């Protein structure tokens, strides 16, 4: 029996998202979380987080912002650590436990971390891509998202295609895998069903080389009716398939629990143009890898 049924496909196409239970076993979820815990213990704090003190506040801010921007925009083919605000003191030392300091790790876990690579290319994932009719899907990026207890912030309403733009639209799919139960209390996803058919109103693009900030937005995010959002709690090991244009958000984590997620994006590469203005670009070191393995 297919992991993804015809009814699931229909719901995804009509609503712009679908929840599928049981992509991973509880043990597989725990292994991914354990590996990430080990990586966090071993990580080097990026230099731009350890800012040297300067009496010129503007200069210090500029140096830090440029460091942050460089670190982010060159992270597509690397594994890098992105922190919550306020977790370092002036010297760049932790003022919270290391494991509670991170917002996310990205953006190439799928390429360099064997456990994450195995999940990304798993028979179930390849099977659902085929079920959706993808001919030549590639993996764009991957992230581990922490959503820390009490400080894991709100993610405002957005469409993934704002950041991962293709011509034509409709070629990007997000897979959002809950490594723990995602509930209303710890910041699960909310969606506006059927909001994936109207295009996008905003794009994040690279700015001309040498300018800061390195990215900027064109257009603006629409204002959405709060009443239209439906909550999508998911069980540990489940996956949410997310159309690149469906509007979704998550609330802050008000609980004492983490909400760990492994997420990655696929693109149908056949007859698709990946925008050279996107922040994320394939590199010589890491062209976007094919999902299907021979």
Automatic annotation (TrEMBL):
2-oxoglutarate(2OG)-dependent dioxygenase that catalyzes the conversion of 2-oxoglutarate to succinate and CO(2) in an iron-dependent manner. However, does not couple 2OG turnover to the hydroxylation of acyl-coenzyme A derivatives, implying that it is not directly involved in phytanoyl coenzyme-A metabolism. Does not show detectable activity towards fatty acid CoA thioesters. It holds the Pfam family PhyH. Keywords: Dioxygenase, Iron, Metal-binding, Oxidoreductase. Belongs to the PhyH family. PHYHD1 subfamily. GO terms for molecular function: dioxygenase activity; metal ion binding. This is Phytanoyl-CoA dioxygenase domain-containing protein 1. Its cofactor is Fe cation. InterPro entries: Phytyl_CoA_dOase-like (IPR008775). It comes from the Eukaryota. The keyword Protein biosynthesis does not apply. The lineage of its organism: Eukaryota, Metazoa, Chordata, Craniata, Vertebrata.
